[in-house]
Automatic annotation (TrEMBL):
It comes from the Bacteria. Keywords: Acetylation, ATP-binding, Ligase, Nucleotide-binding. PROSITE patterns: AMP_BINDING. This is Acetate--CoA ligase. GO terms for biological process: acetyl-CoA biosynthetic process from acetate.
Length: 635
């Protein structure tokens, strides 16, 4: 099995060199040896970043679910594919074998077909972390329907925007969800969203919380009775390499969310190959990624990457704090987890609780620890290393994005020496570049700049659903012939990368990517608000929290600011979701603007961070006096 388990740094460099000197030969070998194809490709790669257009394995035919399920049936049919760990620790975990997964995916796929879903149709999935979520994702892929999973913490309005954008024909949801001690009325949220969406013909509803919900006649169906009578055989739809597999929405710095489109063959090859190498997954290992399948991490590293490798992957329905902060460690001990992949925000929240919870559990099964979603600070890195990994489990700090589909810059466990806060080296086949503000590449080490990628990789998103121009403008316009990530990074003396954070108006809160525009739109809907601007400021646990500057309309009336703050956060919860609530709201007489009317967020960001010693040049502002007023109020 060539290059499939990289074991030491020298081997990494060797394979890396091979992968960039001759990418086509390299990826062809990987694709040929490790996957099941109905027809091989005619051409490994064609690309043009000016259009932009990228095609991998053109001419090939396959179905990703045959790779994730069917091909394991002979050798691993009775192996556990998915362990479902429910929210309530008193409820038993469910072990789903590859054979059972096959039958459940086929049944689900047959239900979709019976309800008229065909290849190319978009299906929105709005489910909690229960087995039906992974199964419905795979069922869509089985029949060539394009899944669009929306994180079940988004509001009705955010859900509606996503359903409308990709004109989904169906929504799959549940009656409700359990989250810690709360239950959430998911079906109610779907009903509200569907008031605005006329493309949805059917809603399939899984029963999770046994609640009495309203079912709309002719539109809504309980899933279980349909699954019960469906056949466990479903021939996979034969897909072309570049047929879309899924759409996943991510926030942009402006405008509505972007529906990133991922296609079939390249995504499969890259997520499977990265999974096996980065985490050094071995046949009997139990792997756990704590993300939600509503995010890209869950798509690539709970579902597709692990299952393609015949792995055992855990799905956890709950939260780290329920019933107490020992829950993660209890699960690690219970299922003897070998690879554990989580986010810095969870690590910080757990670290705050001390080590008592950890000490109650046997964590000796852990071999590899992972982190993703935002920069990890030094303190959290050491806490993770010392207390969870006991200095024996390497930490893979994996940098990547919804748009990249798979892990891009990362240590390879046991092969790459780790360094706190550094994502370290580009993964095999990835060619990063740091650019200066004039569009020139900064060569050499001990430098920093804007992070770009110079050469295509198999799992990159191919377009934004319905808006190829926006795809081009967002990712390929800033630097000629390069994919621009939106992140800043530095490269140290040995060539290790450290991601320093976003250089645009996207703010990462608790690992969730939030664009400023939809939040500001929500605030501005308040009748008393004239305009608003939000920025991020450092927060001990969330990494960043949101700071809103709000200017009120001049009506002459006096307003209760505390009530207004509550109303504004309520609007944000309704329109975007509770994750986007503001931690601080400052009412200001105006917002600093350039002469062309653009809000100077750079200044607002500095004030929010109480870093006012060097505000930079404010003389070009239309209204420099505003800055002083805002500062006086804060300091
Ligand atoms: O800023 C980077 C940050 O998260 C952004 C991508 O967010 P999203 O598309 O939601 O995907 C998150 C999961 C892959 C990036 O542009 N980010 C992600 N991983 C890291 C990170 N920042 C620093 N270190 C990381 N390991």
């Amino acid at each position: 099995m060539s290059n499939y388990h990289i074991k030491h740094l020298e081997e990494y460099y060797q394979v890396y060199r091979k992968s960039v000197r001759n990418p086509e030969v390299f990826w062809e070998e990987i694709a040929e040896e490790h996957f099941m194809w109905r027809k091989k490709w005619d051409n490994v790669l064609s690309w043009d970043f000016t259009k932009p257009e990228v095609k991998w394995f053109e001419g090939a035919q396959l179905n990703i679910t045959e790779n994730c399920i069917d091909r394991h049936l002979y050798t691993r049919g009775d192996k556990t594919a998915i362990i479902f760990e429910p929210n309530d620790p008193k409820e038993s975990a469910e072990h789903i074998t590859y054979k059972q997964l096959h039958d459940r995916v086929c049944r689900f796929a047959n239900v979709l077909k019976e309800k008229g879903i065909k290849k190319g149709d978009r299906v929105c999935i709005y489910l909690p972390m229960i087995p039906e979520l992974a199964i419905s994702v795979l069922a869509c892929a089985r029949i060539g329907a394009i899944h669009s999973v929306v994180f079940a913490g988004f509001s009705a309005s955010a859900l509606a925007t996503r359903i409308k954008d990709s004109e989904c024909k169906m929504v799959i949801t549940s009656d409700g969800s359990f989250r810690g001690s709360k239950t959430i009325d998911l079906k109610g949220i779907v009903d509200e969203a569907l008031d605005e969406c006329d493309t949805v013909q059917n809603v399939l509803v899984a029963n999770r919380i046994d609640s009495k919900i309203k079912m709309k006649e002719g539109r809504d169906y309980w899933l279980e009775p349909l699954l019960d009578v469906a056949s466990t055989d479903c021939e996979p739809e034969i897909m072309n390499a570049e047929d879309p597999l899924f759409i996943l929405y991510t926030s942009g710095s402006t405008g509505k969310p972007k529906g990133m489109v991922h296609t079939t063959a390249g995504y499969m090859v890259y997520t499977a190959y990265t999974f096996k190498n980065v985490f050094q997954y071995r046949e009997k290992d139990v792997y756990w990624c704590t993300a939600d399948i509503g995010w890209i991490t869950g798509h690539s590293y709970i579902v597709y990457g692990p299952l393609c490798n015949g792995a055992t992957t855990i799905m956890f329905e709950g939260v780290p704090s329920y019933p107490d902060f020992g829950r993660f460690w209890e699960i690690v001990e219970k299922h003897k987890v070998n690879q554990f992949y989580t986010a810095p925000t969870a690590i910080r929240a757990l670290a705050k609780e001390g080590v008592d919870h950890l000490e109650k559990h046997d964590l000796s099964s852990l071999k590899v620890l992972g982190t993703v979603g935002e920069p990890i600070n030094e303190e959290a890195w050491h806490w993770y290393d010392d207390n969870v990994g006991k200095k024996k489990a390497p930490i893979v700090d994996t940098w990547w994005q919804t748009e990249t589909g798979g892990i891009m810059i990362t240590p390879i466990a046991f092969a790459t020496p780790t360094k706190p806060t550094y994502a370290t080296l580009p993964f095999i086949g990835i060619q990063p570049a740091l650019m200066d503000e004039n569009g020139k590449e900064i060569k050499g080490n001990q430098v920093d700049g804007r992070l770009c990628i110079k050469f295509p990789w198999p799992s990159m998103a191919r377009t934004i659903w319905g808006n190829h121009q926006r795809y081009k403008d967002t990712y390929f316009a800033a630097f000629e012939n390069k994919y621009f990530t939106g992140d800043g990074a530095l490269r140290d003396e040995v060539g290790y990368y450290r991601i320093t954070g976003r250089v645009d108006d996207v703010i990462i809160v608790s690992g969730h990517n939030l664009g400023t525009a939809p939040i500001e739109d929500a605030i501005n809907e308040h009748p008393a608000v004239a305009e608003s601007a939000i920025v991020g400021f450092p927060h001990d646990i969330k990494g960043n929290a949101l700071y809103g500057y709000v200017t009120l309309k001049e009506t002459g009336e006096s307003r209760n600011h505390d009530n207004l703050r509550k109303e504004i956060n309520q609007l944000i919860t309704e329109q975007v979701g509770p994750i986007a609530k503001l931690d601080k709201i400052q009412f200001t007489a105006g917002l600093p603007k350039t002469r062309s009317g653009k809000i100077m967020r750079r200044i607002l960001r500095k004030i929010a961070c109480k870093d006012t010693s060097n505000l930079g040049d404010t003389s070009t502002l239309l209204n420099p006096e505003i800055v002083k007023g805002i500062m006086d109020e804060v300091l």
